[in-house]
């Protein structure tokens, strides 16, 4: 499957270089569609291995204030389904090899219908979808459409996930497992949860699929800690989105700052 090949290639290539895959996050259309593309370009040039893109939503219950404000900016700038898929196509024209994962909420898919959304997502070049407010047990119908159109599934596991449910989640994931580093919502933390290594260890007992850790990871030191804990990938969101917000408030383009920040975070994934 084309979808799987991109993810397999990204994680495998990073490992061969003695690194973990670095996965920066941005909200589509933040602060506007033109600068959003510049942001993604900066991520790629800074060394991103995988892209995680949020579809802006009015009530993003899994997101903290930083990403909530990013959604508000994107919606205010006119981001809708058509503009979102056009943005993904532009990213694909820049880089056809990097995996693109989308994090969204169930209403976003329901608005178009499972099959129509997945059809347009596949056509645009999306590799995987994570529906933040849809448990794996409730995703059967969407899963059928995703498989039909060659889109990989991503589900969340945490320190509170029972072993049996971890097995269930890992069985139904075919891109990577999103490991939540700590309870709560997305945000910028100063300290990393001590439970990450234990959670990764438990997951590795039930799956050999890639494990990418996110939520609260904001510094190179956090990235090093997660890399040493055994993750295959590290996701950084709010710390980067905060830079986008700062520049948006000043009316400047964040690209140069983000490229440097991503480069530093990527360098911290080295484990040799």
Number of strands: 8
Tell me the number of helical segments per DSSP (H or I, 4 or more residues long).
12
How are the strands of the largest sheet arranged? 1-2-3-4-5-6-7-8
Distance between the termini: 31 Å
Give start-end ranges of low-pLDDT stretches: none
The 3D shape can be described as: globular
Instruction: Tell me, rounded to a whole number, the average pLDDT.
Output: 93
SSE-based structural type: alpha/beta
Order of helices and strands: HEHEHHEHHEHEHEHEHEHH
Task: Supply Rg.
Answer: 17 Å
**Proportion of beta-strand residues:** 5-15%
Largest sheet: 8 strands, parallel, barrel
Q: Estimate the helix proportion, in percent.
A: 40-55%
Short description:
50% of the residues lie in helices and 14% in strands. With 272 residues, the chain is α/β, with parallel strands linked by helices. Helix 2 (33-46) runs parallel beside helix 4, helix 2 (33-46) packs parallel to helix 12 (255-267) and helix 3 packs across helix 11 (238-250).
Fold and architecture overview:
This protein is α/β, with parallel strands linked by helices. Helix content is 50%, strand content 14%. The chain contains twelve helices and eight strands. The protein has an eight-stranded parallel beta barrel, surrounded by ten helices. Helix 10 links the parallel strand 7 and strand 8.
List keywords for this structure.
single chain; 272 residues; alpha/beta; 12 helices; 8 strands; globular
Indicate the topology:
Blueprint (H helix, E strand, L loop, with lengths): L1 H15 L4 E7 L5 H14 L4 E4 L10 H12 L4 H14 L5 E5 L1 H7 L1 H11 L3 E4 L8 H9 L3 E6 L5 H10 L3 E5 L15 H9 L6 E4 L5 H9 L4 E4 L1 H13 L4 H13 L5
Parallel strand pairs: 1-2, 1-8, 2-3, 3-4, 4-5, 5-6, 6-7, 7-8
Helix pairs in contact: 2-4, 2-12, 3-11, 4-6, 6-7
């Amino acid at each position: 499957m084309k979808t799987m090949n991109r993810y397999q290639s990204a994680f495998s290539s990073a490992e061969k270089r003695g690194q973990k895959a670095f996965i920066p996050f941005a909200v589509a259309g933040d602060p506007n569609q033109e600068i959003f593309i510049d942001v993604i370009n900066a991520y790629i040039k800074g060394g991103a291995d995988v892209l995680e893109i949020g579809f802006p939503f009015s009530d993003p219950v899994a997101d903290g204030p930083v990403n909530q404000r990013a959604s508000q900016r994107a919606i205010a700038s006119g981001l809708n389904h058509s503009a979102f898929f056009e943005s993904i196509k532009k990213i694909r024209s820049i880089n056809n090899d990097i995996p693109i994962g989308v994090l969204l909420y169930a209403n976003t898919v329901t608005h178009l219908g499972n099959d129509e959304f997945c059809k347009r997502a596949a056509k645009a070049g999306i590799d995987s979808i994570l529906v933040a407010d849809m448990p794996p047990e409730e995703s059967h119908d969407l899963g059928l459409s995703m498989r039909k159109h060659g889109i990989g599934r991503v589900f969340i596991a945490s320190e509170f996930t029972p072993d049996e449910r971890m097995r269930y989640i890992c069985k139904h994931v075919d891109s990577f497992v999103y490991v939540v580093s700590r309870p709560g919502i997305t945000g910028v933390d100063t300290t990393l949860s001590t439970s990450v290594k234990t959670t990764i260890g438990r997951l590795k007992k039930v799956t050999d699929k890639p494990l990418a850790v996110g939520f609260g990871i904001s510094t190179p030191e956090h990235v090093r800690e997660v890399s040493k804990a055994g993750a295959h990938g590290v996701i950084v969101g709010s710390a980067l989105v905060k830079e986008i917000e700062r520049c948006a408030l000043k009316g400047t383009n964040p690209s140069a700052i983000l490229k440097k920040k991503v480069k530093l975070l990527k360098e911290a994934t080295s484990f040799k």
